[in-house]
Structures are given as structure tokens and as C-alpha cells.
Amino acid sequence: HKRRRIEENRAVQVGGALPRAPSPEREGWTFGDDEEKAPQEQVAERREGAEVQETSMEIYMQERDQEFAIWKESERIRDNTLLTEIFERQLASWSEGCIYCRMTSGEDDHEGLCPLEANDKGVFEGIERGVKQIQEWMARKGSFERYCGCWECGLPYRICNRWEDIYGDGGKFRRIAGEQCQYPDIMAKVIGAGLSRARDVLEYIFRQIGKTEEGKEVGVDDLLRIGGRRRKDWGGMETNDMCVGMSMLMDWFDED
Predict the structure, then answer these.
(1) Distance between CA atoms of 117 and 2, rounded to whole angstroms?
(2) Cα 168 from Cα 209, distance rounded (Å)
(3) Among 99, 143, 177, 245, whose Cα sits 20 to 30 Å from the Cα of 198?
């Protein structure tokens, strides 16, 4: 009897149901309904977190782009303001003395008769011929492109006293009745004297402005053709390339 009870007990233990480990074909242990949703919820939370992070990054980049655009515009305004101030100082300085002497001897502070006319008539007459050539060119219709400055003095509308800014934004100007250019001959005198006293410098300047091939000669006709072109934004002003070249030539003489 004792042997039979031992065998029956062994049969119960062997035949009893034991928990089974997950096989490679199964996903894992079996849990309750709430526990089965946990991995899906985790995936959803991760996806939502990634979307929030991506949105935050997009907002950050948009703000950075806006800040950069504002900074870039402020730099442009600052540079334009500085360039305009420098050019206005040049005009004021060069209009105070004798331009011919300033570009010849550097001694431009004299009154009455120009020493060049009295002591070096050949140099004086050579400068005068260059100035007359520029004056005739400036007076010729079509020498300057449209909307590139005062047709009398060649300077930007914003600077010349003959013009007023209609809307205050530099976009449109109109002639003021009875007003005159405050620098009527400065462009003709500086460029004309440059043709006589600094021809190589003037040609170099207009080769750079006109993006002319290095080594290619820039004659007077080329210089006038380049100078008459419209420059839409120079120091925040609408002007012409002759004005830009004049400023560069003034700067060269002031630094020499």
C-alpha cells in the first residue's frame, strides 16, 4: 500500500500544470488587460514628446531667423547712415576750398585768383578742359539714367537742396520751386580735374565700379558710360555711379 501511494503522488506531481516560460514564437508573459496597454501608451507618450520637442525647435529657429533678420537690417541701416554721413562731410569739406589746388598741390586755402591760373597756366587750362568736358556731358540729355539723382549737379536727391522727399522714406522726390543745388559744380570739377591730374586713379576706380576686365583700358567714353548708370542703393540713397566714383576719388586724395 505504501508503494502504491508513492506512485500516485508522483503521477500527480508530473501530470500537474506548471507555469510555462514564453517561447520564441510568443511576445512574452500574459498579463492583465490594463498591463497589455502599457507599451502602446509608452510609445504614444514618446511620440507626443518628440512632436512637442520638434515644435519647440521650429519655434526657436523661427525666432532666431527673425532676430537675425532684424540684426541684419539694423546693420544695413547703420552702414548706410555712416556712408551718407561720410559723403556729406566730403562734400562740405571739398566745397570750402579750391578743388583744383587740392588735387594739385594740396594747398586749397586761398582767396581770389587761383595760384595755378597765375603761375602754371598750362596745368590750369588742362583742368579746365576736363571740367568743361564733364559739364557738357552732364548737360546732355540721357547721360544719366532716369531716377539716379539731380540732373543739374548729379548728386543724390536726398542731399541736393532742390529736391524734397515726398513721403519721408526716400522712395519718391519732387523738385522744390526756387531752390538751387548747394554744390552745383562739385561733380564736374572733381571728375574733370581727375581726368587731368589723376587719370590713372580715376580709370582704376571706374574699372572697379564697372567690373571691367583687369588690364583693359578704360577711356573717357567708358568712364562716362559707367558713370551715368543708376545706383539704386548707395548709403541708402538712389544715385549714379559717377557720384560713387567721385566719392572714391575724394577719399583717395584725402588719404594721399
Answers:
(1) 149
(2) 29
(3) 143
CA–CA–CA angle 210, 135, 218 (5° rounding): 25
pLDDT the model gives residue 58: 79
**Phi, psi (rounded to 5 degrees) for 233:** -145, 95
What is the secondary structure of 168-233 as a DSSP string? SSSS-EEEPTT---SSTTHHHHHHHHHHHH-HHHHHHHHHHHTTPPTT----HHHHHHHHTSEEEE
Q: Is 161 exposed, middle or buried (0-12, 13-18, 19+ CB in 10 A)?
A: middle
Segment 221-244, tens digit of pLDDT: 999 999 999 998 898 899 999 999
Tell me the Cα Rg of the chain: 41
pTM metric for this prediction: 0.70
What are the CA-CA distances from residue 108 to residues 102, 121, 125, 129 (Å)?
Answer: 5, 17, 17, 20
Spell out the domain ranges in the chain: 71-255
- What span, in angstroms and rounded, lies between the C-alpha atoms of 185 and 162? 14
Q: Which residues pair with 239 in a beta bridge?
A: 231
Query: If you write DSSP's letter for every residue of 121-137 in order, what string do you get?
Result: HHHHHHHHHHHHHHHHH
